[in-house]
Task: inverse folding
């Protein structure tokens, strides 16, 4: 009986040591992330820009719409300009907004994403680079998870997860633009 109590006590101590090490390691994991992907599109920059500057068109290429096709989307602010906002309500995606924060005509769109229900606050950029054969579209997203240790561990896999969504979005933009241009 005494051996069982000692074994149980050692097990509990070992559990606390492992938990402490997991938390301590989590504190040293990065709190910031940046994910970047790119694609070449066989169309001029103005055709690509038209597909990204209107947040209403994001329904045609963004993977977020595939996650919950029943999400309710509303738009406000100036059309295809700084301050245009997409707001969503969804049982799966929660509630949030995307807002255009900066534009350079046919060159760049910068946006912010806020989804407090899922603890997401991020900034993204879609940059267009003219090529002889068309346009390179570079999409990057960056954010900060703060002191949340669980989210810091999630960042270890985040490049693959978010990067996959971004890559699919880029491929969808390519298909949409090339099919409407060509």
Result:
């Amino acid at each position: 009986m005494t051996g069982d109590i000692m074994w149980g006590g050692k097990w509990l101590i070992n559990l606390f040591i492992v938990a402490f090490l997991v938390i301590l390691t989590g504190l040293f994991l990065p709190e910031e992330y940046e994910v970047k992907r790119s694609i070449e599109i066989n169309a001029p920059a103005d055709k690509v820009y038209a597909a990204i500057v209107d947040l209403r068109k994001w329904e045609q290429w963004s993977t977020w719409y595939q996650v919950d096709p029943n999400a309710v989307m509303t738009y406000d602010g100036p059309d295809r300009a700084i301050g245009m906002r997409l707001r969503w309500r969804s049982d799966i995606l929660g509630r949030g907004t995307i807002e255009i924060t900066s534009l350079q005509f046919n060159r760049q769109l910068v946006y912010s994403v806020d989804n407090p229900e899922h603890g997401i606050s991020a900034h993204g950029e879609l940059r267009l680079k003219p090529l002889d054969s068309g346009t390179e579209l570079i999409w990057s997203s960056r954010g900060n998870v703060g002191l949340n240790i669980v989210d810091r561990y999630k960042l270890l896999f985040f490049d693959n997860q978010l990067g996959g969504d971004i890559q699919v979005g880029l491929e969808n933009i390519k298909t949409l633009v090339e099919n409407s241009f060509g």
Observations:
- Residues 149-181 form the longest helix (33 residues).
